Amino acid sequence: MANFSEVGHAKNAANFEDLISYCTGYGVTYNPVLNAIKIANMNTQKTSANNAIANVSATFTTFKIATNSREIVFLPLKKLATRIMGALKASGVPEQTMKDAFTINYKLQGKRAKPIVVPPNNNNNVQAINSNDPPQVDLPKNISVSQQSYDSQIEFFGKLIDLLTATPAYNPNEVDLKLVALNALLTNMKTTNTAVITATTIFSNARITRTKILYKPVTGLVDVAAECKSYVKSVFGATSLEYKQVSKIQFKKQK
User: Fold this and answer.
1) Distance from chain centroid for Cα 61
2) What residues contact 167, with CB distance under 8 A and at least 6 apart?
């Protein structure tokens, strides 16, 4: 998730507070029938908006901490897997076991086990003979094997551990290569990944709540502010100083 800015939302909330202040200053003359633009209700909406904006900021911080923690846990995985392959080979395991391990490791590293073979194209060969340009080869549309999502890395690392567990000969002296350490790492990977998923959901829901409070049609802060301006215009007139006060306060709908 890319970095985001709450400046526009905070500006709308601050401007709404200015609008309320002006309307409060008009005293008993400001006496709308519409409940949404009564001073008390606008103050309630102002508080809800500020709380929603603050909650988005807080949940984003939690989300960033979770993603940073996950990144730290996953960062050494590929180099560790390479060391595991060396330790497995040095254990004297059968060739087929090494082939199975290499297949898993290739996926874990985001590589293709076998290179793509480009099929011959006679028409392209003829074109190359009759032209100084290189032949135009139509490559097959292969599905990407760079499955580097965190879920995929957890899956492939788990499969590699399963293979090592089923291989009695794998018993390295290095502590961080032992099955106990590898299983502990896998558990930590799952934990940090789940933490990010949870934090993402909470952050996303906070943004939805904020968006509704500020921008929902009719009842959102921006539309309520527009209704308030219209009421001031109707009470004091389009050329009045009072209307000039509120009309210059800007509200913009944000995504």
Assistant:
1) 13
2) 88, 91, 93, 97
Q: How far is CA 71 from the centre of its chain?
A: 14
Q: Which is nearest to 102 in space by CA: 92, 116, 112?
A: 112
In 48-82, which positions are buried (b, 16+ CB within 10 angstroms) versus exposed (e)?
bbbebbebbbebbebbeebbebbeebbeebeebbe
Q: pLDDT at position 147, please?
A: 43
Question: CB–CB of 101/163 below 8 Å?
Answer: yes
> CB neighbours (10 Å) of residue 132?
5
* The pLDDT of residue 178: 97
User: So where are the chain's domains?
Assistant: 7-73+203-247, 77-113+145-198
Q: What is the pLDDT of residue 254?
A: 82
pLDDT at 125: 44
Instruction: Compute the distance between CA of residue 185 and CA of residue 93 in angstroms, rounded to an integer.
Output: 24
Q: What is the mean pLDDT of each run of 10 residues along the chain (255 residues)?
A: 70 97 97 97 98 97 96 96 96 95 93 55 42 35 53 96 96 97 98 96 97 96 98 97 96 86
Q: Which pLDDT value is given to residue 231?
A: 98
